[in-house]
Amino acid sequence: MNNSVLVIEDEQEVREMLSFNLRRNGFDVWEAASAEEALQRLDGRLPDLLIIDWMLPGMSGVDLARRLRQDEHTVQLPMIMLTARGEQADKLKSFDSGVDDYVTKPFSPKELVARMRALLRRSGTPEDGILQCGGLRLDLNAHKLSVQGKAVKIGPTEYRLLELFMRHPNRAFGRSQLLDRVWGRSIYVEDRTVDVHVLRLRKTLKPHGLDGLVQTVRGVGYRFSPT
Ligand code: CA
Questions:
Q1: CB of 143 within 8 A of CB of 157?
Q2: Ligand 1 centroid vs 83 CA: distance in angstroms?
Q3: Suppose 21 and one of 3, 37, 109, 195 were both cysteines; which one would form an S-S bond, judging by CB atoms 3.0 to 4.6 Å apart?
Q4: Is the pLDDT of residue 70 over 80?
Q5: pLDDT over 60 (residue 94)
C-alpha cells in the first residue's frame, strides 16, 4: 500500500499541482482547502503525513499544526509546513507550531518528495502501513495488534504507546517525551500515568511472553528492545 498524505492548501492551482506530483510519486493524496476541512478529514482514519500551507483562510496553518499536536489522536502525525518566500522558516520556528519540517515556496516537487520520504523514515512510517518487530505486528491502518497471526486486544493508549515504541526501536524515551508524543501537549497528565500505561502494555504482552520487550531505563524512562 502507498503512503498517504493530506495536502492542506487553499489555492486550488497549487493544491492540484501538488496532488498531481505526489500521485505521480506513488502517494495516496487527500486534499483539503482549509484547516477546518482538514480537521474534519482527520476525524477518522489518519494519513501518514500532512502538508500544511502556512497561509490559510480562517484558521492558519500554524494554529492548525499546534492544535493537532495537542490532540492525542494526531499528536504523532508527521507534518511539513509550506511557507512563502520571505517568511523565514527561522521566524516560523519561533512559533513552535510543532511541525517537523519546513519547505519554502517556490519549491521543486522533487525537493518536497525528498523531504517527505526523509520525514517518513525519521518517523518510522513503513510504506505498507505495517510495523513488525519483536514478534509483534501492528497494522497502522486497521489499528490492530497481532502476535503470531492472532489478534491481541489492546487499549487505545497502550496502542499509541506501542506504536511510538515500534516506530523507534531501541530508543530510550523519557517520561515527559512519552507524555508529549502519546498524550499530546495540552493535556495535564502526571508522570506516574506513563508508568501505569507501560505496566498495562506489559500486561497485554505478558501472555505471549513478550513483556520483556518494554524495558525500564533507569533514570531515563523506557525503551522498546526487540533485539
Ligand atoms: Ca495558501
A1: no
A2: 9
A3: 109
A4: yes
A5: no
Burial 172-204 (b: 16+ CB within 10 A, else e): bbebebbbbbbbbeeeebeeebbeebbeebbeb
- Number of domains the chain is built from: 2
Q: How far apart are CA 102 and CA 79, in angstroms?
A: 9
* Residues 103 and 190 both lie in one domain: no
How much distance in Å is there from the Cα of 189 to the middle of ligand 1? 36
Domain of 208, in residue numbers = 130-224
Check whether residue 21 and residue 99 sit in a common domain. Answer: yes
Distance between Cα 40 and ligand 1 center (Å): 19
CB 178 within 8 A of CB 75: no
Looking at residue 1, what is its pLDDT? 62
How remote is the CA of residue 72 from the centroid of ligand 1, in Å? Answer: 26
Q: Does residue 102 sit in the same domain as residue 141?
A: no
Confidence of residue 16 (pLDDT cuts 50, 70, 90): very high
Cell of 12: 486550488
User: pLDDT tens for residues 38-65?
Assistant: 999 998 788 999 999 999 999 999 999 9
Q: How far is the CA of 171 from the centre of ligand 1 (A)?
A: 37
Q: Give Cα separations from 91 to 88, 179, 208 (angstroms).
A: 5, 27, 49
